[in-house]
């Protein structure tokens, strides 16, 4: 099957071995992130997604924060492996923090009570779409990335360190950088397990 969009999706892989030598400028990465999030769909065009981009020392500060948070809860004998994993994220060029604006969700619940239970779910879907869009856009520029979830462990520290509004709730952290080692082969389950087609 030949389809430009499908081919773009295929280039988006989880890259764990990242470096800090970006193939494009930080300004270009920032523009890509903004455009990808801006044009990602959301229910009722609610535009609930919020993003913080960290480069250089600010990026490393995030992962040091994660490491020290985990040091307090991971058993000492297991911490070395955890520290190595976190250091591999810190070795990248930057991080993208994805948030959802809960005030927007709450306002929609009040405006449309019939759908009140759905708006938190739709918010999560909007966040996932924005993450996927950014990840795919970065992949087109040969920028590697992986998606992490150390929330809610680091929520309060992140909020204080970068003066994040209280109504922004952290949903994911995407580390990005140069690709030191490509992703390995990916296995797929059989189509008949995942799809049902009726005519």
From TrEMBL:
Enzyme class: oxidoreductase
GO molecular function: oxidoreductase activity
Domain Nitroreductase, residue spans: 9-177
The organism's taxonomic lineage, starting at the top: Bacteria, Pseudomonadati, Pseudomonadota, Gammaproteobacteria, Enterobacterales
InterPro entries: Frm2/Hbn1 (IPR033877), Nitroreductase (IPR029479), Nitroreductase-like (IPR000415)
PANTHER family with a match to the protein in the record: FATTY ACID REPRESSION MUTANT PROTEIN 2-RELATED
Cellular compartments annotated: Cytoplasm
Keywords: Cytoplasm, Oxidoreductase
Record EC number: 1.-.-.-
GO biological process: cellular response to oxidative stress
Protein name stated in the entry: Nitroreductase family protein
UniProt keyword Cell division present: no
